[in-house]
Amino acid sequence: MTVLLTNLSGSLLLLLASPLFLTVPTMSNQFAFPNPVQAHALAISNFCEELLQVFEELSLGIDADHRGDSLRSIRDGLISLVKRIINPLISAIRVELIPLVEALEIPNISPVMKPAPSNKSSVIYHPSIVALQTLMPQYAKVLIACTTTSHAALASLLISVLWKSLVALSHRVDAKSFKKHRDAFPANTPPMTPSRFAIKLPPSRPSSPPTVLTHATPAQDCKALYDLLVGVARPSDGQAREAVDEAFEGLRTLPDLLNAAKFKSDDLENSQFLAKELNQLTIEIPFLISLPVILRTFGDSDTSQVASILGISEQEYRKGCLSGFSRAEECDETVGQRILDILKTDTVPHYVVTQWLETELEGMDDAS
To answer: What's the helix, strand, coil split of the chain in %, to 5?
Structure first.
């Protein structure tokens, strides 16, 4: 076993030294993934994984083993080999994914062009979604090898991507006033003038209505992103898997909140019903992710952003409260109570927001 571990380490050392090992496909650089060098390294990782499974089944190389099999160092060495292969690949994928999901906060302002005849979709997705539709199937081939020994690294990647996605989409303003494509002809081409004979002739068949293209709403982009990520392999470790599943639930339910928040009402009677519905929609969504959506919808110009209500800069708020799931959860009650106290003293009533906040804060008290 010692000789085997030494040989595997020697073979892996040559692969890790290759510049191709950390090369991952991007939108500007498409190639087979994994490439031959990465495929060789992943084969070594898979072999180590199979050995580790046998070690687990036979209870070899564990501290509580009184037989003294002296295989603990071999077991640790195999785990180390797998991490040396998987962790750098995950980090390389993270470098490409994080900027794409962070860019989802910026509304898509690309011009609406005439659709191709073969294009049946009437929605123009965000450029990040378009890029991920190409990249995620390729990344998934490598991530599927990270579900056992490297479950912690895989969980960290997925949770980071999901959190950045939730922050970006919940803080994105839904751009509703894009200029629509009006003219079917170029601007310098005069319209055709029908002759007096053509006017009398009935058309052979009714013309098909033109395809109207619109930019995807945040809810539509969120749904598309969830569909892309949900098929990625998840860690097999119990705790890591549970954390990833909870993060996925937040992204899965966010589109419903984004859609429901379109129905704005400041009427006292309707506000009670709306607040109750919002509480149901936000059960699986982190509080600080739901908060900006509801404030932006039911607040005014002075109460539409969390940071401005708290009296701090947006950068300071995000760094202090939105760095991750755990940090956001730690700040939930403090931020929520502060927002509620300020809104109650405002001259403009905010029935929906305050009633939603009161119910959310009561739930936090009960949970603690």
So the answer is: 60, 0, 35
306: in domain: yes
Whether residues 230 and 280 fall in one domain: no
Report the candidate in 265, 234, 256, 261 with the shortest Cα–Cα distance to residue 247.
Answer: 234
Q: How far apart are CA 147 and CA 241, in angstroms?
A: 10
Cα distances (Å, whole numbers) of residue 102 to 59, 99, 336: 44, 5, 24
User: What's the domain range around 281?
Assistant: 261-367
Q: Does 238 share its domain with 338?
A: no
**Considering the domain boundaries, does residue 195 fall inside one?**
no
Do 225 and 307 reside in the same domain of the chain?
Answer: no
Residue 281: name the closest of 266, 262, 304 by CA.
262
Query: Residue ranges of the alpha helices (H) in 230-282?
Result: 238-260, 268-281
Task: Render pLDDT for 298-314 as a digit per residue (tens, 0 to 9).
Answer: 877 777 899 999 999 99
Closest CA to 169 of 231, 101, 123, 108: 101
Strands (E), the chain: 123-124, 214-215
User: Phi and psi dihedrals of 174, rounded to 5?
Assistant: -75, 105
Mean pLDDT of the chain: 84
Cα separation of 343 and 309, whole Å? 9
Structural domain contains residue 115: no
Residue 234 and residue 98 share a domain = yes
Last residue of a domain, which of 198, 228, 254?
A: 254
Contacts of 309-317 with CB under 8 Å at 24 or more apart are: 309/338, 309/339, 309/342, 309/343, 310/335, 310/338, 310/339
Q: What is the pLDDT of residues 250-291, one digit of tens each?
A: 999 999 999 987 666 555 567 888 888 899 999 999 999 999
CB atoms within 10 A of CB 237: 18
In a domain, 187, yes or no: no
pTM: 0.84
Cβ proximity of 133 and 66 under 8 Å = no
Same-domain check for residues 225 and 299: no
- C-alpha angle 311/316/322, rounded to 5°? 110
241 with 312, same domain: the answer is no
Partner residues linked to 214 by β-bridges: 123
